[in-house]
Design a protein that fits this description.
Layout: H1 4-25, H2 32-52, H3 61-113
Helix pairs in contact: 1-3, 2-3
């Protein structure tokens, strides 16, 4: 039978791995409620690991700080990735608007010449 400390340790590793998976797919970047729910979950997990530790690793305080800190660090990385994604969407929209505006100006100029 697997003990609680091993399950909790594997659970934290799964949370860290899921950060990579979810942000790579950018699923949450398109759904703000999903992104912020995922971020809140990360904050709760990271803070809990730092505050309460993982049973069986209580002698290794550095383990709880490193694992909790790593989860919290992913909150920062996820926010940076979301901001960059949203910034790129805005750039793309502005470029589309600029191209459309240039096309309209060119059409009006050619109509004025005729």
């Amino acid at each position: 039978m697997v003990d609680l400390s091993t399950l909790l340790f594997v659970g934290v590793v799964v949370v860290i791995a899921s950060n990579h998976l979810v942000m790579r797919l950018l699923v949450t970047a398109e759904r703000p409620w999903g992104f912020w729910t995922f971020q809140a979950f990360n904050i709760v997990v990271g803070s809990s690991v730092i505050a309460f530790g993982i049973p069986g690793f209580s002698d290794y305080v550095v383990v709880q700080w490193m694992l909790g800190g790593l989860v919290l660090f992913h909150v920062i990385l996820n926010n940076q990735a979301r901001v960059e994604h949203l910034r790129q969407q805005r750039r793309d929209a502005m470029e589309r608007e600029l191209r459309e505006s240039e096309r309209l100006h060119a059409t009006r100029a050619s109509d004025a010449e005729e």
